[in-house]
Amino acid sequence: MGHYFLLLGIVAVGVGAFNGIRQASRSASANFGLFNQAVSGQSDFLIESPVQRLLEEDLAKLTRLSKEPDWHLVPVIEGSVTAVKNGSEDKKQLRLIGLDLLALGNLPTLAKEGLKFSDEDANWYDWLGSKNEVWVGQKTADLLEVKQGDSISFLASGRLVKMKIRMILNDPDGNLPDDLVLADLPTVQTLLSRPGELNRVEVVIDQVNRREDTAYLNDIENRLARELPQNLSLAPTQNRAADRAAMTAAFRLNLTILSLIAILVGAYLILQALDAAVVRRRSEIATLRSLGVDGSILFTTYVLEALVLGLFGSVAGVGVGQVLAFGAVGMLSDTVNALYFATSVEALNLTSIDVIVGLVLGIVFSLLAGWLPARDATQTPPAQVLARGDWSPGFSWLRSPVIGLGLLLLGGIALLFPPFVMEAGSNMPVGGFLAAGCWILGAALLSGHVLVLLAGWVRPFCSGPVFRLASSRLRDGSSRHRLAVAGLVVAVSMVTGMFQMIDSFRGTIEEWFDVRFQADLYISESGVTGAGTVNGIDPRLMDELLKDPNIKYADVMRICYAKPPRGVTVLAGVDMKHWSDQARQIWLKAPGSLQAVDGAEPALVSETFARRFGVMAGGVVELGTPDGTKKISPFGIFCDYGNEFGMAAISSDIWSDWTGSDRPINVSLYLRDRAKLLETRDRLRLAYPGLDVRNERELRDVALGIFEQTFKATDALSFIGLAVAFAGLLLGLLSIFDESTQTWQTLKHLGFSTHGFILAAGLEGAGIGVAAWVAGAITGLALGWLLVFVINVQSFGWTLLWTVPVESILWFGLLLTVVGFVSGMIAAIYWNFRR
Amino acid sequence: MAAEWIEPPVRSGKGYRVPSPDYSPLFPRDHGAHREYGLEWWYWVGHLKADGNLKNFGFQSTVFRVAGDPVKSLGNEDGLFGNRHLFLAHSALSDIKEKRYIHHERVMREGWQARADSSTLSLLAGGIEAEMLPGNKGHRLITRYPNGGRLELELFPLKPLVRFGERGLSRKGDGAASVSWYWSYTRLQAEGTLYLNNTEHKVRGEAWMDHEISSSQLGQGLAGWDWTCMQLNEGTEVKAYRLRQEDGGSDRWSSVYWIDSKGEVAQVYADHFTWEEEDAWTSPATDLSYPTSVKIAAIHPIAGQVSYYLRPLLANQEFLGNRADNAYWEGACEVLDEDGVVIGRAYLELAGYGGGLGARLN
User: How far apart, in whole angstroms, are the C-alpha atoms of residue B172 and residue B220?
Assistant: First the structure.
């Protein structure tokens, strides 16, 4: 009975891992910044500018549209602030949303729910437009440990400001996220030092009961579109979610593929377990066969068993998935925050599709896993039972290298496939993933031969019966030994490949840091750490700061989003002379090695940008800016690992002309007297508590912190894969010993001690571990190369320096050997105990 | 008929200016906003005919301006999200033939969605826009309704503007500051176009416009008011209102005004008229009961006893605001005499039946 529960558990964990990751990644990346909807309700359309930044003069042009009673225009400004808990160093990054709090009262859902922003007896003008008051939900209040009327300090745009909690918003259903801070729109403009700016205007239809009426919505959309100023775009809100979903599509697909690997390893575990069941019942099967039971009946019985296991296991897996999703969602949303844009976690929801996908996956993989042992059982001849222990026709194909070699070749061919271009302009390296899959499977199939080969090499050096027994059994390379190695190889190669990619990434970033960051001090807005965050520092504050007497030169950087024909990219305003002549970069093409096209603004572009827009050899890219469509042309290409959307840097003056803004995102300071670096840093920190003032070392730590955050998900999946693989190894060894019953009994009669048997089993396990490590490490190296030079280049557009973490791989090999040894002994002890 | 004179203060309790007696308004400037006063509204109602008199419509368009901080509200607002004044816009259309009443409310802060010029009639609030026509011979009113409906009217005075109340102050209660400047065009010729259900109707009819400025509208202890303006077929108009006290009685400042064919005004207070409820309609939406059929019997200073019977042209003309307790009934009516003969058209307003109105307007 316990055996069945174990099998059910295995299926449940496999399905759960897939479903949990699926749900968590959806939940972590579904919200995409429309945080205000928790307050203002669902919106139907969005009015945006190509660069995701609207000016109030754009809003003034929408006055005509605002007169219509059929919809409500809801201007939104959003950004991030860092709350500093009173009397502590504890900081919490929050989303700050600015809405017209008075006009919200017109919204149909709000009017119904009666969301209040003040007590009944207060004058509206006491709170509307208030410069220092904010509203939060109960969850945020709990997090910040504040109540109505309390003060809280925020770091915003580089300034430290004290705000008052005007009211805890009524939120009986708990819809308000725990990182939401709401304030009147002009208050937020001031706090974020973005006077006259908005992020977007949302459109909420008045007759919310007609949301399902497509004809009505089309009519509304047409009426809105007729009056819309040319420089603004209108789209149904669900398209935004789709756009943002497209932006993270590559990331989410990577996760899905990784979770599929987890389920594949799970399937391997099921196969091992069902196979173990067949082996254990071999004598029972043989007896049945002797009594004339037809092979097809046995086959059907085992397949049915697999089906039942798959069904119940999947049902349990859906539940396990929910639990895993709860654990993973925070981690994934942190990753999305760090990599892409601010997002908040949406409540996890289990859809019928999740249930169906979970069931189908679990059943299909269980059937596939059950098929081989079932066939094995069917073909068991009665006479064979007593003749020999190792008899597994179901896995005889593991002995042939042809399929394995074929898969390796197929993987090589898949590399020739071009990447698939996704909606938001990012690329999906289809060929790269196919190659990875083929190589992993091919290596798994060939790993048995590695086992036999290694055992053959070692055998001459073995002395004593225990060592000789272990090595000869491994050299015989039974199908089950091969199966145990194959399962481990999948996990080992995956983990080794990931190790390499992460190490290559880390190494590249460190190298990039060493070259790129040569300034003395780096200043950015406090608390804002996401790679995709565009917030900024109050320009007046920056002017004030730059008056410091010890500053020799300040490299001020400004960025905003710009709209290429597909997707989105980043446009930076920099001191071009400094960037071209003095600032150190890792140049792919040094400034001047490309000829900027006449009539287009000369730009230094990142490698990602150049690859995305096909200007590695020069050319022109058209970008939508607040000032209309502009042309830029690269005259140099630099390496940049800040984001996967690419960046084009142009002269600051032109940038300000195009964007109508001069808000810096950060500044690098070169000091007159470097001896006074720490003194200057501390002075600036004291004078500007809302800014992060860091030296190169501190900046590196922060950047690597973001980097580690980014790979949290990958680490977790690697861990699941490894855990499942080791469990598989344990089950595999049990099958091996079950199957070798006759051999062991004979040896025992010949005087072989139980200790000797356990030690031999441990050595057998260690041998499997070593073989899996050798085959897995070789495959892992190939995977690492694939991840660095194909998948990363195609997905993200950047070239990494390939680093092989030899030490980690060696340690991993030692770990595998030890774990294999211990697993072998545990399996033998258990087997011996059962006998 | 003269009543007790109570001298109004210069400023209300909250600090807004209080309308002063003997003020001589200057138009079109005084059609504009009076930012230093706490409360102001522009109000249009009327009866329109369309498609060769086959269709009848009643309309109500009202813009309220409510001042914010008494000190800051005087300054001009230059931002798109002001907090010196807020505006409410109420629009309603009664389609008498189709027995349909459409209405909507918007509340906005001064800025990109709402503004009122201080130097002339130039208003924007929600779906309502009003501005003077060239030469100031009349003004244009545009009102928008749900489902793409729109009423565009040009309104021309058929009579001179009327200033109500003693020494130009209309008193609404015993509180010294409970006075307003109350100016009306009691008969405007209305012409224009109504876009309704994707159909364009040429409309023509007569309208009434009020512009009232105050800083403390109602006296203490008032629950609401019943108000009507009648345009009689013989060319005169009647305005009557009953200020309802919380105990059910009528405040002594309740009044009836008669405007003769030349625009001359005669007035009596509560002790010279009665307002009798003859029938009521209960709203299925709010369960509130509104006395929509009334008899107003008054003693005209010259003509003596007169009676007017108001009958709604459509039962459901209840205006449901954003707030649940803001509902009121305001609708197109006909005016009958003692013999049941139709002698004119009216608009009847029944406010404060949901409670709490008096407190909010003070």
Answer: 10
- Would you say A597 and A582 are in contact if contact means Cβ atoms under 8 Å apart? no
How close B91 comes to chain A (CA, Å)? 10
B295 is a domain residue? yes
- Rounded to 5°, the CA angle A379-A384-A387 comes to 160
Q: Which of B83, B91, B144 sits opposite A125 (nearest CB)?
A: B83
Question: Quick one: what percent of chain A has pLDDT higher than 70?
Answer: 79
Q: Is residue B28 part of a domain?
A: no
What distance in Å separates residue B215's CA from the closest CA in chain A?
Answer: 15
Asked if residue B98 belongs to a domain, the reply is yes
B197 and B178 co-located in one domain: yes
For chain A, report the end-to-end CA distance as a whole number of angstroms: 18
Q: Chain A neighbours among B 53-72 (CB < 8 Å)?
A: 68-69, 72
What pLDDT, on a 0 to 100 scale, did the predictor assign at position A235? 84
pLDDT at A530: 47
Q: Which of B68, B84, B146 is facing A70, going by the closest CB pair?
A: B146
Contact A60 B112 (CB under 8 A): yes
- Between CA A755 and CA A429 the distance in angstroms is 52
User: In terms of domains, do B293 and B157 share one?
Assistant: no
The answer to whether residue A604 scores a pLDDT higher than 90 is yes
Cross-chain CB nearest to A63 (options B83, B107, B113)? B113
Q: Are residues B312 and B249 in the same domain?
A: yes
Q: Cβ A103–B109 below 8 Å, yes or no?
A: yes
CB atoms within 10 A of CB A172: 7
**Is B230 in the same domain as B344?**
yes
- Please answer yes or no on whether B68 and A105 come within 8 Å at the CB atom: no
Domain residue limits at B40? 33-217
Mutual orientation of helices A295-339 and A282-290 as an angle, nearest 10°?
150
Do both B112 and B187 map to the same domain? yes
**Residues B132 and B210 both lie in one domain:** yes
pLDDT single digits (tens) B45-62? 999 999 787 899 999 999
In this complex, do A66 and B145 lie within 8 Å of one another by their Cβ atoms?
no
CA angle B340–B344–B345, rounded 5-degree value: 115
Give tens-digit pLDDT for A381-408. Answer: 665 544 444 455 556 666 678 888 999 9
Domain check: are B333 and B198 in the same one?
A: no
Alpha-carbon span B234 to A712, nearest angstrom = 86
CA distance, residue B197 to nearest chain A CA (Å): 13
Interhelix angle A754-786/A712-739, rounded to 10 degrees, is 140
Q: Which of B161, B195, B217 is the last residue of a domain?
A: B217
Provide the residue type at B273 as one letter: F
Residues of chain A found within 8 Å of residue B360, distances taken between Cβ atoms: none
Angle between helices A430-458 and A754-786 (to 10 degrees): 150
Residues of A in contact with B106 (CB under 8 A): 69, 106
